[in-house]
Batch of 4 targets.
Target 1
Amino acid sequence: MVMPPSPVGLRAVSNDGSRPRRGNQKPNDRRSSRPGNKPGRGGAPTGRSQGGKPGRSQSQGRSSGPRRDDDRRPERGGPKRNDRNERRSRDERRPDRDLAGPQQWGRIARRGAGNMEYEDPETIAQREEYKQRKAERARRKAERAAETPEKPQRPQRERDLPAASDLQRQANRAVARGRKGAPARDRRRLPGRPHPVKDPAIALKKTVGESRSKTLVRRLNEGAKAFEAERFADARSALGPVVKEAPELPEGRELMGLTLYRLGKWKEAIEHLESFRELAGSTEQHPVLADAHRALGNWADVDALWAELGEASPSAELVVEGRIVVAGAKADQGDLTSAIRLLEQNWKPPKRPMGHHLRRAYALADLYDRAGRAPRARELFSWVAGHAPDLADVQQRVKALS
């Protein structure tokens, strides 16, 4: 009897219960006969049994049936590593560092606050020990202080306050010491007579040559004209090359010194006028030189120049000018009595006064006013105003004292 063909889609089973061979599968292929092996693509088995690992057969590994509880590998004894670490960290936590802060913060926030507030017990113990040692040292120090006898204190002497006259005398001495200032500079003694005056043009010709001397002579004349016109800045500019190229020319030094004096350049004016004094051997500009030293507070130089002027016995006008400067220096130092005495010496109002007489009278009247002798100052200022009403501010001084 012929069996009808199996319907398409149904798997045929052989008589022995095995699956029919497919493709190029050999009859003795063990993979096809293993129970539970499923063919893969193209009829090849997948190589993995039910419930087993890939590449292992039933004879080598576990069966494809359900695993029993007895088949499970027994676990190692003791808790897991993570459990031990968690238990250890939990045991090491201290109650005072676990939680802190209000309960509404939450456990994590309270634990962080507890860690911040935690203080090591060893640190606490060290601090307490330090406090105890400190207290012990203080106690011993107090005991030693109590055992040491107190030294008798010396009775304080009552000091008598100095009298007002003593204070005034000491103050005057201190002011006098401060006004002495630096000593006078070392000057070469002047000759008995001034050096003979030479023509500046001839002196410049010998110094810088004929061609250059003409230019310097012209600059010297321009400086003299500017000085007479009271254009002192122009005079200084014109005289600069003359002094630089011919420093031994007395006329250049003299005119430059006077120009700087009128400009208020005291220190520079002193240098040029001191050079003129040595080059010319003359005391002609001693009053101006002394007044420049007076402006800088060089009192010793003022006195030295005044003494040198007296030895030279120059003209009366030059002596009066020097006397006015020295009197002003004494007044600047606070010695009004000596200043007035110096100007009053041999003073008589002349019938026909000259310029130096009027200047001396004006300076004396000013000292009277500063000393509080208003009637005498008003009388002398009026006499000066009657002969020279345009001299300084004599008119205002008379009105102020009237």
Target 2
Amino acid sequence: MDPFIPFRGSQALKRGAVTRSELRTRYRAVFRDVYVAGDAELTAATKARAAWLSTGATLAGLSAAAVLGTKWLDVAAPAEIIRADRHAQPGIVSHSYALADDEVHAVRGMRVTTAARTAFDIGCGLPLAKALPILDALLNATGIKPTDVAALADRHHGARGIRRLRAALELADGGAESPQETRLRLQLVRAGLPKPETQIEFRDLHIRVDLGWREWKVAVEYDGIQHWDNSYQRSWDIERIALLEAAGWIVIRVSAEMLSRRPDVIVERVQAKLTERGAYARIPGAFAYLGPTLAAHWENTTQSCRQPLADEGESASRWSSARVGATPSRTVSAAASETSACPSTISE
């Protein structure tokens, strides 16, 4: 018995693998009759398996995502299961919706919703800004595409949260390799910039950038802590940026501090570089870049949040198509601030 893997306490006692005293002093209960070693790290995947052992129910939502290999999940979030009985012990959320036969499968002996169904449930059940990093990570871990999930959305077209799901699918991208990269992409898109491509590869240079626009040769790189603490990484960063610039690319680097405290600076810098390269966007009509569902969603939900211009007669021309960086009355950054202030937009 591996004490770091969840196990049924009653079965371990029956086999004589532990005594009641040992179970009480050396192990900790995760859920009813399920234990792990007292010093074991409790991950989202561990918690999911513990919930399955305790209930025998189908794993769904974040628990299914964890079992499917999704990274960066919040271990403090409750485990999620599907069964007829909605009542559940503390730390577990029980759903009672029906599943089609092709929406569930077995993973390491556990009954788990498929990757597409898992993405469907997360996209319908969580606010878009919270769902998107998880959807990106799930797509990255499983290799499914937004179109796979969209097929389920068509099947369950009347489900609660379906419009929110479709909006998320238009932004979801399995190329993101961290929640911060997802949030960076989201910040740029909701500010009215064209949707960037993720993980652009330069095979001849053996380089890959987080996101950017091939058409205008503009790249944006998120620098995590390893880029500042690791001397080898720092040296390679200097070299790779020199190689990219030699190839005609502009690189904008973003730190965690900038993303959390100065997102407007990021938008302004990227906006300026795109302008230099001849890129165009609409302010705030850049919603057109996001696909029909999300564009319609934002056009409707942000309408009430837009402040009237000083001269209402100028509203049509000032809010019409404008070159990125054009500032007759509002910059892209201002548009980003207004949309993020609206409770119906993507901001958390």
Target 3
Amino acid sequence: MDFRKLGIVVLILVPVLSSLVIAQSGQPLMVAGLHSSKDLVWQRTSPNEKQMDGPVLYQIIFRSSATPNHVPMISPTFTLMDSPISVGSGNVAIGGMSINGGTGVISFAGGQTFPGSGTITGVTAGDGLTGGGTSGTVSVAVDGTVARTNASNNFLADQKITGDLTLTGSGNLLSSNITNSGTITANGRIGIGALTPSFDLSLGGTATRTIAMERNTSGSGNSLTVQAGTAAAGATDQAGGDVVLSAGNGTGLGASGNVHFQTAGANDISGTSDDGLADRVIIVSRGKPLTLSSPGFTALMSIHLVGTHTAGRRIHYMVRATDGGSQIATEEGVIQYLATANSITCTVQTNDKLHLGTVNSGCTPGFFNPGSQPGVSIFDNVTFSSPAPIVVHEVYFTVENESGSTIRLEP
């Protein structure tokens, strides 16, 4: 074999290997030759020293401390060593940063900051939020003391609002739990238990309602004043508004409810128990029927009396009787009564009676069950100018009670 041709092959291959190594180390390019130097070590592998005329093969030996699963790099002494880049389970890691080989997701080391104007060094919770922080896992949550709504703008659980609550536009403030349900409408009406209030303050009509002040936390109860409107300041000779107290209206033969005025008399002994409220005035809304035969009769009221308690006052009444046609007999009068637990007396004031036609009304004292309570009945003897049977016979009345004892309207 022509040695010169073989030498050309070696000279071509060796510079390529040397160039690869030298290029990685960043040192000036060197061309390998047959003479060794301190930078590269050449080792003759064949032929042996006694056969110098054969082909010569030189092998470059690299000094290295690199380990598997690391990308090698040139050390300061120009040997191979591990670089900060490692590969394991398909993932690439550079220090504390890793790249998932399957998803491409990059994970950064804890406490990582980013240069430039977009650097985030901390999270601060603003109005209506809690949480935040400058390191570690940072979370932000809605402040539990701030009213919250869901995606449908409904409040979540119980909410408290401090300060002013202003409604803008024509919206209503609705609630599903202001004493069952409630509404504050854009026209200024408030409904409690009523979603569509018809009055300035409407209470739901599906249950009995009470408007009352709560107990005082100490001492006597406080006063409640209900007052109608006062005339404009500076206006001349203008009247104030009326106070109208009205029972609930009925339909057809139902009539309205009665009107009761109540107070509580003192208990017989000192103590902390509540005094009992009693009707002092009852205005009966509809006429109570009397029997159609003569004399007509019906019970009006009785009083619950115990011990040495007494009761008395007046019953104002008006009797109406008709023959179903044009004949009418009517009388207005006052019954006085006075009672103890086991006795009662009554009288009709003859000098305070008016009549049209013949009625001849009077009162009868008696005792009424349950409880054998003392009470009063009314009777009359109606006659028409032209004899005819009684078709309509009724009495309207109002009971006054000068005592702390309770009154019962008799059926």
Target 4
Amino acid sequence: MAELTTRERMLRTYRRQDVDRILMVDYPWAGTIERWKREGLPANVAWDDYFGYDKIVQLCPDNSPRFEKKIIEKNDRYTIVTTEWGQTERVFNSIDSTPEVLDCYYDDSDKWEEAKARMFRYSDDRIPWDYLKENYPKWKAEGRFLQLVVWFGFDVCHSHMIGTENVLAGMIEEPEWITDVFDTYLTTSLDLCQRILDAGYEFDGIYWYDDMGYKNSPFFSPKMYRELLKPYHKRAVDWAHERGLVTELHSCGFIEPLLPDVVDTGVEMLERIEVKAGMDPRRLKTLYGDRLAFHGGINAQLWDDFEKVKAEMERIIPIMMEGGGYVFASDHSIPSSVSFENMKLITDLAKKLGKY
């Protein structure tokens, strides 16, 4: 088979069709890239160009309530800020740290009505039109795969606005509030995505973040997923399919109990398949490989030991490749514990194992 573009390769992977090689799409931390530069990555070369990874483009319109962003405190260790989603966060200065959520302004159903009204105040600057206009011709010429990021679901509303405990309690005690949150997030995001399509920009798919599990368990039962969240996942999938777009769900954590219903929504690809949380890529391939493509599934905790990750890749990649439908990646992201030399060895092995 002749060499395909990333776009051609990705679309065929979604459909579980033959490709020239498996796709390679991953996300190193900022600290990881800085380490690689110290260890030999040329300063003027993008990491994915150097290693020959496939390039995709993700564009996410801003459907936030546009809460006032400001700096409350700043010192040598951290900065405390308010975000456009109404959270107060402590952002540590170390390059790969996770912000600490200190407070959520929109933390109950009474305040939600204020946020909802603000989210529906559409304006042109919610979409990065200048960035899109400048880069779109290059993306198309290079054969990149283009995704619209739809910002909705359990994950983004609990982690960016309302708070985990508040959302989980609301799913039990005030389900009508939480489903209104899901609906508002999805409606506003799709409305903004539609404006991009109406302006003549052609995208290939949609992508959304919805981490629904932690280690060895989902955050909620299959019944609760089916009743409260699944209808919005299905609505997003249906919206995409009506426009000829493919769909990819990013979901970290252990979500296997939810997968029968997730697959039933019609979504075509599942990303990340987090092994360290209890997910088993080979088992999922056996159970759902005729209906679902997979992205990820190589335990990121092993990538700093080449012999261990080599054995894992040799165990998993040949199975995941069978019948098509696999994108090579870590099961989360590439941490700064991975050396430049290890990344070269891992990349070379992925290319060797990934040939059809």
